[in-house]
From TrEMBL:
Homodimer. The dihydroxyacetone kinase complex is composed of a homodimer of DhaM, a homodimer of DhaK and the subunit DhaL. Belongs to the PEP-utilizing enzyme family. Its EC number is 2.7.1.121, 2.7.3.9. It comes from Microbacterium azadirachtae. PANTHER family: PHOSPHOENOLPYRUVATE-PROTEIN PHOSPHOTRANSFERASE. Its main location: cytoplasm. It is an enzyme of class 2 (transferase). This is Phosphocarrier protein HPr. Gene3D superfamilies: HPr-like, Phosphoenolpyruvate-binding domains, Phosphohistidine domain, Phosphotransferase system, mannose-type IIA component, PtsI, HPr-binding domain. It holds the Pfam family PEP-utilizers.
Length: 822
């Protein structure tokens, strides 16, 4: 092995060759290995095309890897930077590589000279990065340094540098990355600007970073003190530690632990929910069932009067109250964090950063001075302004509104001497109901007797959801009308079905807390009709748990879950090992392996585009395989190989199929790989409507009711406000399921359900009545579904299905089915 090699990435081959020639003249006789990755080939006339190509950069790195201890990559500008970054994911070798933010020509020369002296990779990189200093000093005209150049890091007259980075983590710059950026800047001057036209945002302003809105694939310009720029750039390069598909802290997950259940929600009015015995519907975000009296979290702190004007001569003193109040809030939050652990502590730390935001304090002070309002009112107005910005950004960012309000309430409480509303201190178990919960409230939850959480707002990634899952208590969010439930009303909270039932009958109270008998491995109706009950798994550990719960097989193996952390496609042997882990516990039983369902809510860096406008309707599921046929053929080879080595009965199915041609081609690909049974998921209305034709070419189908509902109702399955639409009881969805069931019966081919509806004991008899022959679910639902099915006959299921199909609303469908089943 030799010393350091250099890859020169340029849009122009001629520029790269000329720079290489210059470098060679600087080190006559020395053989510094320099590989060029420049230009994008030639056109029909043989003229060079300007451009860069990540694959070529990766090849150049690999070329040098055989003979070098390290590789420094120098690039010119714009897409060259992105190609170089992307190349790090594409390369096959594992030689250490540094991307230099140095100017291309000067950097190449400096690097070549230093490398020729046998310097280390770090030394070569440092020398390249400092290559402009001599020129700047000599010309004494520091304005000539390319201060405005967006990439790569360009030193400026004032000693600051500018560098462009790319957002690589799937969730973009959300709360956790924002906190990391603030910490990495270490108080040094650093501004971030979303390219092409964003406003500069100081790294110290957590509030503004929350509203930054940078998504995966976006370019961000970092400008500031060199060390801070490098530290923050490293965070971006590392994808904020979230390139494994799940953030290193689940505080603000980018991918829910498991795909969220669609809420079994129904339209309702707040007035209706207050009737005794009424049921509220929301989004179930943490499983389990609990029954207890309601304790309402007190209303947020009272809004300070807007009319309490502060005379001119006292405004300065009033504004000066803000900084000490903020400091006290920060200290209190940090003290809470120190008393907490895990996610709670991390969330509190992040909230402390929000409270410490100097921009926020400055903006509030400015309001006091300019508008003559009280400090408390200024905080209130400024926080509302921030909350509005976050809400307008929508999605996960909007879920951070509760955090801003929490900081607001704490600050206002300090400034006015009021108490901050908190978790009720009760000796008996209670269900906590709130508009939304923020860290300040939830920190104490673990120490309280709270047995379930219900909120009117919030989504699957809200703190309520995260903390409830961490505490292992059921939670329902987006339950409209919940704050109107009178205190002390006994409620049943079903965190899987997203249901909050007021005053449940005595019988239900008892059975809710009762564990059904363990599943004995035989799914059947009261009359002995078999209904296979299988498990949904994402890997070997799930499979072992499913086998322990006596699942009759695996109805859905989400293979993409094995590879969420991979930047590059896993090799066939790696895939074989992952699949064998799932097949091994199920020898002799059916295992339905789903090919990669990459895209939308489960992006895989190696398979999905980062910049789709509308990923749920984009290149996801089987469509990825159509775009990258090798991905599918490698996976089918690996599945066939794993199946040959284990004793499970392997069936393979494709996600997101919309046309019969796709189904036919998929079956052909499976057969070619030696897979005997091939099917498809029915997740699109198109596939459901064509189920007869689909079943003519496949061996089986499985209804992915999560996506089928989302696409039928045109409602994002992760959206809390759309929970009422994302309900498999919606008659439109039931009728599509009925169409598929009828097609299955006519063809004598199996029809499974592997969406979350398959694990809901309430709808299970209806699904069976509609023609479904197997249900697949999370292993912990097996016992409840099995117990329910044992109480109904095939004829009763058919009648319940007929009644539900005749309904015109989801509420009516539930009621009709319940009535038919007695
Ligand atoms: C579904 O859509 O119902 C399904 C089972 O697939 P996933 O939840 O993985 O998208
Ligand atoms: Mg799906």
């Amino acid at each position: 092995m030799g010393a350091v090699g250099i890859v020169a990435v340029s849009h122009s081959l001629r520029l790269a060759e000329a720079a290489q020639e210059l470098a060679a003249q600087m080190v006559p006789g020395a053989a510094v290995p320099i590989a060029l990755a420049a230009g994008a080939g030639t056109d029909a006339d043989g003229s060079p095309i300007l451009g860069t190509d990540a694959t070529r950069v990766a090849e150049a790195i690999d070329e040098l890897a055989g003979t070098c201890d390290g590789v420094l990559v120098l690039m010119d500008l714009g897409s060259a930077v992105m190609s170089a970054e992307f190349a790090l994911e594409l390369r096959a070798s594992d030689v250490p590589v540094r991307l230099a933010s140095a100017p291309f020509v000067e950097g190449l020369l400096a690097a070549a000279v230093t490398a020729a002296q046998g310097a280390s990779l770090d030394e070569v990189a440092a020398e390249a990065n400092g290559a402009l200093v001599a020129k700047s000093a000599q010309l004494e005209d520091e304005q000539q340094t390319p201060a405005a150049a967006p990439t790569p890091a360009a030193p400026r007259a004032d000693g600051e540098v500018v560098r462009t980075v790319v957002v690589r983590n799937p969730a973009g710059v959300h709360a956790r990355p924002a906190a990391l950026i603030g910490q990495a800047a270490q108080g040094a001057p650093l501004r971030l600007r979303l390219l092409p036209a964003g406003e500069p945002v100081p790294a110290a302003s957590m509030m503004r970073l929350l509203a930054f809105g940078a998504r995966r694939g976006d370019e961000v310009e970092l400008e500031g003190e060199r060390g801070a720029v490098e530290r923050v750039a490293a965070l971006f390069d590392d994808g904020f530690g979230e390139m494994d598909g799940a953030p290193s802290t689940p505080a603000v997950p980018s991918v829910p632990e498991a795909p969220s259940a669609p809420a079994t929600a129904a339209a309702q009015s707040p007035a209706a929910v207050l009737d005794p015995g009424a049921t509220l519907h929301g989004l179930g975000v943490s499983p389990g069932v609990a029954v207890a009296p309601v304790a309402q979290l007190g209303e947020a702190i009272a809004e300070p009067a807007a009319t309490d004007g502060v005379p001119e001569d006292r405004r300065e003193a009033e504004a000066a109250r803000l900084a000490p109040a903020a400091a006290e809030v920060v200290a209190a939050l940090r003290a809470d964090a120190a008393r907490s652990e895990g996610e709670t502590a991390q969330i509190l730390e992040a909230t402390a950063l929000l409270a410490a935001d100097p921009e926020f304090a400055a903006a509030a002070s400015a309001r006091v001075r300019a508008e003559g309002v009280s400090a408390a009112r200024a905080v209130w107005d400024e926080a509302e302004e921030q909350a509005r910005l976050l809400r307008d950004l929508g999605g996960r960012t909007a879920e951070r509104v509760a955090d801003v309000r929490s900081v607001r309430d704490r600050l206002v409480a300090r400034l006015t001497g009021a108490d901050v509303p908190g978790i009720p201190d009760r000796a008996e178990p209670f269900v906590l109901v709130a508009r939304d919960l923020a860290p300040a409230e939830t920190a104490a939850l673990g120490r309280s007797r709270c047995v379930a959480l219900v909120t009117e707002e919030g989504g699957p990634t809200s703190h309520t959801a995260i903390l409830a899952r961490a505490l292992g208590i059921p939670a329902v969010v987006g339950a409209t009308g919940a704050t109107s439930i009178p205190a002390e009303t006994v409620v049943l909270v079903d965190g899987e079905g997203g249901i909050v039932q007021l005053d449940p009958p005595e019988r239900q109270r008892a059975t809710a807390s009762e564990e059904p008998p363990a599943f004995d491995g035989r799914g059947e109706l009261a009359d002995g009709t078999p209904v296979a009950l299988r498990a949904n798994v994402g890997g070997a550990a799930d499979a072992r748990a499913a086998a322990a719960a006596h699942a009759q097989g695996i109805g859905l193996f989400r293979t993409e879950f094995c590879f969420l952390d991979r930047a590059a496609e896993p090799t066939v042997p790696e895939q074989v090992a992952a699949y064998r882990g799932v097949l091994a516990p199920f020898a002799g039983r059916t295992v339905v392996v789903r090919t990669l369902d990459a895209g939308s809510d489960k992006p895989l860096p190696f398979a999905t585009a980062a910049d789709e406008e509308n990923p749920a309707l984009g290149v996801r599921g089987l469509r990825v395989a159509v775009a990258h046929p090798a991905l599918l053929s490698h996976q089918l080879t690996a599945i066939a190989d794993a199946a040959a080595q284990e004793g499970a009965e392997v069936e393979v199915m494709a996600p997101m199929v919309a046309t019969v041609d796709e189904a036919r081609d998929f079956v052909a690909a499976c057969r070619a790989a030696g897979i005997a049974r091939a099917g498809i998921m029915i997740e699109t209305p198109a596939a459901a409507l064509l189920s007869a034709e689909m079943l003519a070419v496949v061996d089986f189908v499985s209804l992915g009711t999560n996506d089928l509902t989302q696409y039928t109702m045109a409602a994002d399955r992760l959206s809390a406000p759309l929970g009422a639409l994302n309900d498999p009881w919606q008659p439109a969805v039931l009728r599509l399921i009925g169409t598929v069931g009828a097609a299955g019966r006519a063809r004598g081919k199996p029809v499974g359900v592997c969406g979350e509806a398959g694990g809901d004991p309430a709808i299970a008899p209806v699904l069976v009545g509609l023609g479904v022959t197997s249900l697949s679910m999370t292993a912990r639902s097996l016992a409840r579904v099995a117990a329910r099915l044992r109480t109904v006959t095939a004829e009763e299921c058919r009648r319940a299905a007929e009644a539900a199909l005749g309904a015109s609303t989801a509420v009516e469908a539930r009621a009709a089915a319940a009535a038919a089943l007695g």
